[in-house]
Amino acid sequence: MIFIVCGVSGTGKSTIGKLLADKLKLPFFDGDDFHPHSNLEKMKEGIALNDNDRKPWLELLATELALWGANRGAVLACSALKESYRKILSSKYTEEIYWVILHGSRELLIERLNSRIGHFFNSALLDSQLATLELPDYGWTIDIQSSPDEIINTISKRLHVNKPVNQ
To answer: What is the pTM of this model?
Structure first.
């Protein structure tokens, strides 16, 4: 069972991903941990990543997803902003993928990003992420105004009622 918790920076992907993984007793992975050093440096400097920067990272994550899926499954936190990125992520794993798309207002996202300490992401990049974001018409889009516990409860309810869509 593979879950991908996605959205722009500041939506709480890592927080929700960890809570979901704990609830489901699955390993949690943060896509940011798989970025090459050069990508992290660009983002620290306020330089938006382009598709060429992201492609090797997404292909690595696709390979990892296939391995995790062949094992017990996993929860991955990953921005997955564009449909083309989600296609790469799901390209090597042929089973069902549960897509959890976290979404919220720019104001709330800026507030969250500006309260972070020691994170590599430069909040000046939020607008480029919002401009890049292509919300899918599948998966579960969840408003981040709810508390993390409420979001996990929403996912749990949907998990028992809905069947996921694999890309």
So the answer is: 0.87
